[in-house]
Amino acid sequence: MNEEKIAVLLLSLDEELAAKVMKNFSSSEIELIGKQMSRLNNVSLEDVNNVAKEFCIMARQKGGVLPVHGDALRNLIVKAAGEETAHDILSSIERTTGSGKYYRNPLIQKLQEIDPQVLIDFTRTEHPQTIALILSYVGAEQAASILETLSPEIQCDIVKRMATLKSVPHEVIEDIAKTLEKEIIVGGVSDLQPGGIAMVAEVMNRMNRNTENAVMKSLDDTVPEIASEIRKKMFTFEDILKLDDRSIQELLREVTTEDLGRALKLVDEEMRAVIFRNMSKRGADMLKEDIEMMPPIRLSEIEKSQRIIIDATKKLEAEGKLVIARGEGGDQFV
Hints:
Blueprint: H1 3-12, H2 15-22, H3 27-39, E1 42-44, H4 45-54, E2 65-67, H5 70-81, H6 83-97, E3 99-100, E4 103-104, H7 106-113, H8 116-123, H9 128-135, H10 140-147, H11 152-163, H12 170-179, H13 197-206, H14 209-222, H15 224-233, H16 245-252, H17 257-264, H18 269-277, H19 281-293, H20 299-318
Antiparallel strand pairs: 1-2, 3-4
Helix pairs in contact: 1-3, 1-4, 2-5, 3-5, 3-6, 5-6, 9-11, 10-13, 11-14, 13-15, 14-15, 17-19, 17-20
């Protein structure tokens, strides 16, 4: 069963029934399926019937085509996951698919495709609020790379603004679009809700360690409540210690020995011990030897390998193969 077929099947059902089915999914699974729902345009009745037959479930007959619209998607996810959790899931879907009100927005799509250097040059002369708005739409990787080019004072200001951004009127988006019209071809835009704690946490995960620490320290000093909320949403390399042994073993099957060795080069003995005990004795001995014999490498290479392992962890979480506790004081799962 793949996510696209599940999305088609759920959208063919009555909202209440579909919501009951989705209540059996984890938040990560709901988000994964929600993204597929948001990407669907119109689904033919033939496709619905084919999916229904495949899963041996009778699809509700709608005749002609099955419309896919934002209200249906939002209602399903709210009923399945609750209002608070649904907000985070829908925000993630909107950022990932470039959709406002859950349909594709040309401005966001172009912002995500534009040359990062163009945006770096543009942000140097813009107001922090404008920069925060732009970075909320370009994706975590690109936002992190742009933030790293700014001064520490501006970095902290922008992160605070990103974390507290609310719905933005389309007029504001259009003003920015006009300024960027030489680089971006833009159609109509709607009121959108960018940024938020989840987006900032993802950006923090993509920044180099020194910049991340500096920004978080500044947030701790100025807006500790926001800093705390961001940490709850973050997943750092050290958070691997919060995984159970089975999850760590699953993770180790997904990453290369080379990345694992580089990632462990500067960590403490406690973390190394956790990794080693989840490997075969021969594998652990070989990895220890690789780390000891490893020549000096750039800190950026170590952090790159750590990010690869973080991404692998998130991929496994999205697939429902493990559950991770993020940030400070996260609940343990038993």
